Amino acid sequence: MGEIGRPKPVNLIIGILSGVYELFAQVGETLEGYFGKSDLRSAIQPFHYTTYYNVEMGEGIMRQFLSFEKLIMPDEIADIKIRTNLLEETIASQKKYIVTRPVNLDPGYINESRLILASTKDFSHRIYLRDGIYAEVTLNYRRGKYETFPWTFPDYKSSEYHNFFLLVREHYVKKLKGMKG
């Protein structure tokens, strides 16, 4: 019989997707108010991988990732996804923008072996957590790099994203070592 244990903490990341440039700073500040200081931020880069979001979000969509200094427990991701969805709804309800969905927030986490994303959408490769939230292994870390799956979103297959996630993973491993010593 296996012994039940407590998992290691993980590194929270949140992807911000928006066509409204000023929202990156505003949303980043709000997220830091919720989850603590960010320790890494990717560049804000054009999101050209799909037109899926254009109807709701318009054109000129950009993406930025934030990594958070404080580690979380893996089961916290469901609450975090619920909180980021509420933030999205709050921003959209302000009706200050010409698009119906000014921002999309994608929380997830990185540990030593994978990148997990939280979602409200069920699919064959997603596991139900609770309260309408699912989790998906989006990337697998092996032999010094990230590997994709057939369901991995096109943008998460890009070298730009992988380079940032490798940096987050490197910082994460140092954080774990710091906790032990």
**Into which percent range does the helicity of residues fall?**
25-40%
Helix/strand order, N-terminal first: EHEEHEHEEEEEH
Structural class: alpha+beta
Q: What is the terminal separation in angstroms?
A: 31 Å
Number of domains: 1
Uncertain regions: pLDDT < 50 for 5+ in a row? Answer: none
Radius of gyration: 16 Å
Query: Average pLDDT, to the nearest integer?
Result: 96
Shape: globular
Largest sheet: 9 strands, antiparallel
Number of DSSP-assigned strands: 9
Number of helical stretches of at least 4 residues: 4
Tell me the fraction of residues in β-strands, as a range: 25-35%
List the helices and strands and how they pair.
Layout: E1 10-18, H1 22-35, E2 38-41, E3 45-46, H2 54-57, E4 62-72, H3 77-93, E5 103-110, E6 114-119, E7 127-130, E8 133-142, E9 145-147, H4 159-180
Antiparallel strand pairs: 1-4, 1-5, 2-4, 3-4, 5-6, 6-8, 7-8, 8-9
Report what the structure shows:
- By secondary structure, the protein is an alpha+beta fold.
- It has one domain (10-180).
- Helices cover 31% and strands 31% of the residues.
- It has four helices and nine strands.
- The protein has helices at residues 22-35, 54-57, 77-93, 159-180, and strands at 10-18, 38-41, 45-46, 62-72, 103-110, 114-119, 127-130, 133-142, 145-147.
- Strands 1, 2, 3, 4, 5, 6, 7, 8 and 9 form a nine-stranded antiparallel beta sheet that branches.
- Strand 8 and strand 9 (145-147) form a beta hairpin.
- It is globular and about 55 Å long.
- The model has no long low-confidence stretch (mean pLDDT 96).
